[in-house]
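As a point of orientation, let us examine one representative protein, giving the amino acid sequence and backbone structure tokens.
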Amino acid sequence: MSESGAGRRGRWRSGEESRRRILEAARARFAGQGYDAVTIRSLAADAGVDPAMIHYFFGSKDKLFAAAFGGPESPRAPLDAVLDEGLEGAGARIVRGFLAAWDDAADVEPLLALIRSGQAPEMVRQYIEREFTARLADRLPGPDAGLRAQLITGQLLGLALVRYSLRLPGPAAAGAGDLAAAYGPAIQAILDGP
């Protein structure tokens, strides 16, 4: 076997080991400090890797959080894509995008367990607030934009709970399009405000 082949195998094992250490460090630090206080640099120090390796494996802090706790990859990109199309009809698009992200997640149960258990409510709250609710509020008009964004977040988390955790037969079996059609008008009413 060539020396370069052996080097690739070693780098691969080292890379997988580094990825594992990053995820372990992320779980510990997010749980101990919350989402907002954690930096990529502090996680890299805990894992004994260069910060660039975290970006290489995970791309961003929100994607690392999702990977560490089993949630959807990131709420940021789907929300931005929906809102870039404008607020008209955004209720159904938000529901559809939300469901697509959760349906694509390998295993959402660890994140749902954190939400239900109250073991790490501040960490989860900070993540949801920073990566979804605040971004939504920034795009909504009116003085009550923050409240409306929080109400939409609550509606969507409730939908996630009944579909993915409690697995109520209707929401669990319904297609994303059907749920978007049924749930979208409620989200749209909150988006539009009084």
About this structure: Residues 171 and 179 are 7 Å apart (CA to CA). The first helix runs from residue 3 to 33. The chain is about 80% helix and 0% strand.
